[in-house]
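dumping this here so i dont lose it
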């Protein structure tokens, strides 16, 4: 088995969990398969860095002293808001030499500043997707997934998604059982699909200002198996369907249909993760009606059928 060097770039203002989360995943895999990973941290000049939370990290070496790694990982944090021409130049020169280029959270900003994401699909923390797209129009920003793979480049969303991505890379490098064991030790899921949304429908959508629309939002969440057509929801809000659809979108930033789709998907996911109910029963409880309708929704949104999704979260649970 070839040894893969993972080099994690450190800088002042880095988010500590962006560093330690993936590092713990790769270190856990190394404990199971000695010699599988060589994990290094480095900063410009080899100087200690202060994280955004005030923690001081002491790197293994200076970036200029490290050979080109297999995996070059760039974390995010408040420090990415400040220009760093020297680090940008180092990434521009050495990023293309890595076999795998990875960013966590706003580490994607550093990669974009170095021109390494031009013509690529990428993601970052949802709060910075708009500014990244605006400042780097050559990058195809997808604000929804928790991580995105485009060739040898992988970018992930906020903080804990770096763990999800690292687990996916370990599974790819070694095997699923190794990644599952690491996930169990870290008490995290193996593994959230990369194209799972960064946040729930309730968080993705704004809370409506008017009480009738807020009540409709609550009703949808509590009754995913009900008739949630625009006509039925408009009747609950005492509005015409046309007025309701316009008002709902204006106040939540999301059409009623899209909101319903997200709520039903989340409800089905929770049942698959937390219960042993069968797919047919879950499809009815979540408002899909049939297993096939739920399967299409899962494949479209998550890239995995319900049975496969359940296996990822509950490997010992019956697919049913």
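and the seq i came up w/
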């Amino acid at each position: 088995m070839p040894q893969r060097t993972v080099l994690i770039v450190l800088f002042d203002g880095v988010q500590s969990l962006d560093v330690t989360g993936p590092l713990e995943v790769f270190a856990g895999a190394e404990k199971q398969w000695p010699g599988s990973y060589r994990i290094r941290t480095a900063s410009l000049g080899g100087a200690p860095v202060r994280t955004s939370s005030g923690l001081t990290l002491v790197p293994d070496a200076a970036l200029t002293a490290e050979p080109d790694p297999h995996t070059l990982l760039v974390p995010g944090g408040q420090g990415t808001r400040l220009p760093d021409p020297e680090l940008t130049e180092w990434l521009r020169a050495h990023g293309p030499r890595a076999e795998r280029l990875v960013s966590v959270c706003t580490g994607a900003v550093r990669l974009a500043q170095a021109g390494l994401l031009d013509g690529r699909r990428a993601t970052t923390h949802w709060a910075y997707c708009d500014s990244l797209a605006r400042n780097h129009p050559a990058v195809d920003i997808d604000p929804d997934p928790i991580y995105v793979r485009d060739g040898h480049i992988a970018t992930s969303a906020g903080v804990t998604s770096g763990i999800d991505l690292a687990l996916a890379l370990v599974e790819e490098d070694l095997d699923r059982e190794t990644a599952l064991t690491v996930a169990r030790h870290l008490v995290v899921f193996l593994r959230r699909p990369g194209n799972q949304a960064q946040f729930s429908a309730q968080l993705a959508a704004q809370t409506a200002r008017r009480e009738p629309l807020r009540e409709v939002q609550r009703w949808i969440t509590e009754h995913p198996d009900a008739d949630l057509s625009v006509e039925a929801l408009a009747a609950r809000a005492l509005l015409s369907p046309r007025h309701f659809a316009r008002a709902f979108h204006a106040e939540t930033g999301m059409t009623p249909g899209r909101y319903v789709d997200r709520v039903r998907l989340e409800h089905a996911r929770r049942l698959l993760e937390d219960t042993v109910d069968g797919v047919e029963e879950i499809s009815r409880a979540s408002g899909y009606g049939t297993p096939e309708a739920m399967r299409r929704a899962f494949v479209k949104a998550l890239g995995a059928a319900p049975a496969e999704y359940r296996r990822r979260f509950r490997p010992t649970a019956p697919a049913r």
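Residues 200-320 form a domain with the Arc Repressor Mutant, subunit A fold (CATH 1.10.10.60).
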